[in-house]
Amino acid sequence: MSRQASYAPRPVDPRRGSTRVGLVDSPTARQADSPPRPRRQLPLSPALRTQQAGELGRRLSPLIKGSLKLTITDNRAVMISVQRDARRRLFTVRLHHLFLDTTDDLLRPLARYIAFGDRQSSRQLNLFIDQQQDLIRVPEPQQPSLPIRTEGKVYDLRTLFDEINARYFDGALNADISWGRQVSAGRPRHSIKVGCYIVELNLIRIHPGLDRSWIPRFYIEWVIFHEMLHVVHPIPTVNGRRRFHTAEFARDEQRFEHHALATEWEHRNIAALLSI
After folding, report:
1. Separation CA 92–CA 34 (nearest Å)
2. CATH 3.30.2010: does it fit domain 46-135?
3. 30, 22 Cβ separation under 8 angstroms
């Protein structure tokens, strides 16, 4: 049985643009609403990235005593993402390029975290990440920030986010979360965006219409979990189009405990959701 864990840096407030990733996979389409520069940029050449991943993988493989599939990334929200298949001793790892120059002192804690999720090693890695913020954040033009509002009449988004983060991401996922703008309810519509992830702001926004007593907790948790997966998963470009929901994303979504229940509830209540 595979298990995934992730590492994210401590909160930094970049406040950037507005590329949105939404929850859009139901039968009815849902379209919900200066630090120093890095000492070394991530090489643009895919071949060079592959070569660097291979070199680091050869150093790590003897220590984890298993098969390692390693990808080097420039993901600014998640530094380490690990999927563990303990039965086959197979480890699929996405690793920020700041680890390319990993010293021997850090190599063993990194291997222990990949193989076992070792807590002492995780603390060492967190300390290293904190010390390397200039390799993580690249200054970008400032954009007006969006207001953050987590408390609702029924649900508190920060409480739900923290519980899901602890349960499914080892508490390591870093992102902001907020209710979206209030919209007029009851107007006829053919689609609704119940949640979205704004990549540049590292911000999850949830449709405020879900803050109602008739919306079950497991459903809003599923919406939040879905958007949290967008923080972890890359967005590849295929034939000139960005793919937000890859096969790997779909498999990871099945990890949610109430996935089947939430999708079935949504199917039965889609008419009510379209009116919120």
Report:
1. 35
2. yes
3. yes
Tens digits of residue pLDDT in 72-101 = 887 777 888 898 887 888 999 988 888 887
Helix axes 217-232, 157-168, angle to 10 degrees: 60
Contacts 24+ apart (CB under 8 A), 139-144: 139/34, 139/35, 139/37, 140/14, 140/16, 140/200, 141/16, 142/15, 142/16, 143/15, 143/16, 143/17, 143/18, 143/200, 144/15
pTM here? 0.54
Q: For strands 20-22 and 203-206, give the pairing.
A: unpaired
Mean pLDDT score, 239-247 = 77
Pairing of the two strands 176-179 and 203-206:
parallel
Cβ neighbours around 261 below 10 Å, total: 14
pLDDT at residue 268 tops 90: yes
Containing 81, the helix (H) or strand (E) segment is strand 80-85
Instruction: Pick the most confident of 86-90, 144-148, 184-188.
Output: 86-90
- For the chain, what are the domain ranges? 12-33+141-273, 46-135
Per the document, the length of the chain is 276
* Segment 143-160 mean pLDDT: 87
| Strand-strand pairing, 203-206 and 237-238 | unpaired
- Whether 14 and 200 have beta carbons less than 8 Å apart is answered as yes
- Closest C-alpha to 24, from 240, 195, 221, 184: 195
Domain covering 12-33+141-273, topology: Zincin-like (3.30.2010)
Mean pLDDT, residues 107-128 taken together: 89
Average pLDDT over residues 181-192: 70
